[in-house]
User: Which sequence fits this backbone?
């Protein structure tokens, strides 16, 4: 059966046109677009860690700088607090520390520079004094011998020995204070501390006290100030 001429012309006009082969430049452009196009496949959140984009690294640098400054501030603050606490402890135990052989001298010097007189907490009652007697006055002098023993658990300075002469009624007729350099056989030991349990010998030489002095007594004293002595038997 033949189609009419008009029908044949209409069918020919509806046939698809043949596809043209793209040139090389067109293929390269298409492949570049396909490569740069984001994938349409879903991405699992568990398989990839998402990060917030940072512009030029400035927020990260600012965070690190702030963290370093905070650490430095905490370190300085901790050191200041530790120094304040140490100063409070030293001041609270200053009298006990002042009698330490190594710590005592620089600590007393530091307090003197601050205008504060530091008095060590010496134990006079722990200084044991034993009298050995005296030689009869001969050639216008009198010699009294004794021994000193430190019974404390810490070193103490050699005390000042106070000699009181008494008459037959027990009244004091004369008093004299002997510095350590005056009664020690080795005066160079006067500035050294008397170690715990150690002893030293004392020899006191004085002029003939006269016929009124028939007895004497000794006392140990330590100087609290240039004009004040603290003695074991009472005020100096």
Assistant:
């Amino acid at each position: 059966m033949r189609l009419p001429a008009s029908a044949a012309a209409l069918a020919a006009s509806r046939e698809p046109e043949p596809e043209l082969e793209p040139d090389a430049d067109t293929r390269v452009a298409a492949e570049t677009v396909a490569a740069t196009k984001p994938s349409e496949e879903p991405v699992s959140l568990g398989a990839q860690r998402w990060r917030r984009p940072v512009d030029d690294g400035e927020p990260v640098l600012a965070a690190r700088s702030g963290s370093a400054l905070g650490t430095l501030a905490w370190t300085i603050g901790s050191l200041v607090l530790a120094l304040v606490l140490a100063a409070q402890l030293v001041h609270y135990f200053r009298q006990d520390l002042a009698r330490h052989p190594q710590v005592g001298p620089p600590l007393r010097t530091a307090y003197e520079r601050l205008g504060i007189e530091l008095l060590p907490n010496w134990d006079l009652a722990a200084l044991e004094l034993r009298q050995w007697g005296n030689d009869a006055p001969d050639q216008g002098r009198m010699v009294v011998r004794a021994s000193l023993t430190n019974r404390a658990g810490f070193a103490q300075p050699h005390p000042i020995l106070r000699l009181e002469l008494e008459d037959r009624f027990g009244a004091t007729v004369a008093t004299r204070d002997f510095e350590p350099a005056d009664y020690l056989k080795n005066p160079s030991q006067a500035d050294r501390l008397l170690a715990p349990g150690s002893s030293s010998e004392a020899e006191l030489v004085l002029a003939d006290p006269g016929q009124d002095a028939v007895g004497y007594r000794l006392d140990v004293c330590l100087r609290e100030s240039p004009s004040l002595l603290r003695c074991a038997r009472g005020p100096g």
